[in-house]
Write a structure and sequence with these properties.
With 493 residues, the chain is an alpha/beta fold. It is built from 20 helices and ten strands.
Length: 493
């Protein structure tokens, strides 16, 4: 490999402006973004559904609305806007004939109880500007009168041109008779006062990160009255957000990441789960860090710079992981300073080979991160071997201050080099060496062709990753973020 396994956070940030992209990214979470259309539109659809039920036959429903109004969103989510009346929508893209429509509808209805009386919406969204031919209208008429399938179906045919929708309605009425409601439907999407909320939820859910508005693109700053449709409003915000992220990428010659590592007796992430994202593996959560250390000096410093804090975390793709004894002791036994190696030898810790060292790192959260096996949350259960735990406790008796940690950091650089060699990860390692493209001197750096990952270690005795240390841990992370922000000239202070 010549690049790190997982895309940098800056390469992942997006703001979809179209329904199709949003739906593909959010899946079931899409419901959290949906806002009901105007009451008049809901009433029109309910009238159409009730009229169908009264007649006992299906309905062909041309829909007209300008581009960006939300036609696709509406047509594809009727069961959410009018629960109890509609099943989920069939997204139909086949040939418009009675047999294919009946086949898909029958398959769809097989997923529901036989006595389910809900209407099946069928959205024909791939024919905008291309209305049905006379033959297709006859096939639609035949289908909508078929018992068991067509009689329970509402075919939605959206278009942006009022004339096309009107002509479709007249043509169908001429061959099928007067419909139960006046066609076509001219619809409207969510009210403008809800657009900022939609944009905010989109930004948050698609990226699985809170506080992204702090980067500088805030939906509430955009006046909905200035835009002709929700789609236009979202496209402007999407463009501005994309440009902002692009500027951030260009600010540095190479991408940069920060990983803070807690090397302790703890076998798992412990309290780190409370300070990091529940959706992005180990990603620091700025709000959680400030909430955990509100009275610390660095907490007060960041509190007035929330936008900078979010920006720093995003630009650095800043993560926090635990480094358990099962991963650290083997590295120290093989690569540590001579006194440390000798002490571990007296404890009966065998000299591990590169394969064993790589395997031990691979099994902890740091290894999973480097191998691109990131989970949504940090590891919270672990059982260190008795020998590695006792060995770590033995080393901790001398403490890790007064420069004693530097040779330990150097040993970890050697161990991570072994991991790169064993797994062909494509990075080189360095300890206490300035990066070639910025003034930072991290404890370790993992240098890929197009980016560097900076590792900052903090060695602590005992089971350190526990609740009573949450404030101290948060303050340490905030200090690291502050130092990086200053070194990179992101803040003049």
């Amino acid at each position: 490999m010549t690049a790190s396994p997982e895309l940098h956070l800056l390469e992942q940030l997006v703001f979809p402006a179209r329904y199709e992209t949003l739906s593909a990214r959010l899946g079931p979470q899409l419901a959290s973004v949906l806002v009901n259309p105007e009451t008049e539109t809901q009433n029109l659809l309910e009238d159409a559904a009730r009229g169908m039920m009264a007649r006992g036959e299906g309905l062909f429903l041309p829909i007209h609305a300008p581009s960006g109004t939300g036609k696709t969103t509406l047509a594809n989510n009727l069961e959410k806007f009018l629960p109890g009346l509609f099943t989920p929508t069939i997204l139909f893209s086949g040939n418009v004939n009675a047999d294919s429509l009946a086949r898909e509808t029958a398959h769809h209805l097989s997923k529901f109880p036989a006595n389910d009386q809900k209407i099946v919406p069928i959205n024909i969204d791939h024919r905008e500007g291309n209305p049905p031919t006379g033959t297709e209208l006859s096939e639609i008429k035949r289908f909508l009168r078929q018992p068991g399938t067509g009689e329970k179906s509402m075919i939605l045919w959206p278009d942006t041109q009022a004339e096309i929708s009107e002509n479709m309605s007249v043509a169908y009425s001429n061959i099928a008779g007067r419909p139960p409601v006046k066609l076509p439907f001219s619809i409207s999407g969510p009210p403008p006062e809800t657009w900022a909320e939609i944009a905010h939820n989109t930004l948050r859910l698609v990226n699985s990160i809170d506080s992204l508005e702090d980067l500088g693109v805030r939906p509430s700053d955009y006046d909905a009255a200035e835009y002709r449709s929700l789609g236009e409003y979202l496209r402007v915000i999407s463009d501005d957000f994309s440009q902002l992220v692009t500027r951030m990428r260009r600010e540095m010659r190479k991408a940069l990441r920060l990983v803070i590592l807690y090397a302790t007796e703890s076998s798992d992430a412990g309290v780190l789960t409370q300070l990091s994202s529940s959706n992005k593996f180990g990603l620091l959560d700025g709000s959680a860090l400030l909430d955990a250390s509100p009275d610390s000096e660095v907490g007060r410093w960041w509190k007035t710079r929330r936008g900078l804090l979010t920006s720093t975390i995003v630009r650095l793709d800043a993560r926090v992981f635990s480094l358990p004894p099962s991963a650290s002791i083997g590295a120290l036994r093989r690569y540590g300073p001579e006194p440390v190696r000798a002490r571990l030898d007296t404890l009966g810790i065998r000299l591990p080979g590169e394969t064993t060292i790589a395997r031990n790192i691979e099994r902890c959260d740091l290894g999973k991160y480097l191998l691109g096996q990131s989970k949504s949350v940090l590891e919270t259960k672990g059982t260190p071997t008795t020998s590695s735990l006792l060995a770590f406790q033995y080393l901790a008796e001398d403490g890790f201050t007064s420069g004693r940690d530097k040779p330990l950091n150097a040993a970890m650089a050697e161990a991570l080099s072994a991991l790169s060699h064993q797994k062909d990860l494509g990075y080189t390692t360095a300890a206490e060496r300035q990066l070639d493209f910025c003034p930072l001197i991290p404890d370790n750096s993992l240098n890929f062709e197009n980016e560097s990952i900076c590792l900052e270690y903090t060695w602590r005795a005992q089971e350190f990753l526990i609740a009573k240390n949450r404030g101290n841990i948060a303050a340490y992370c905030l200090r690291k973020l502050k130092n990086y922000s200053r070194e990179l000239n992101w803040t003049p202070e």
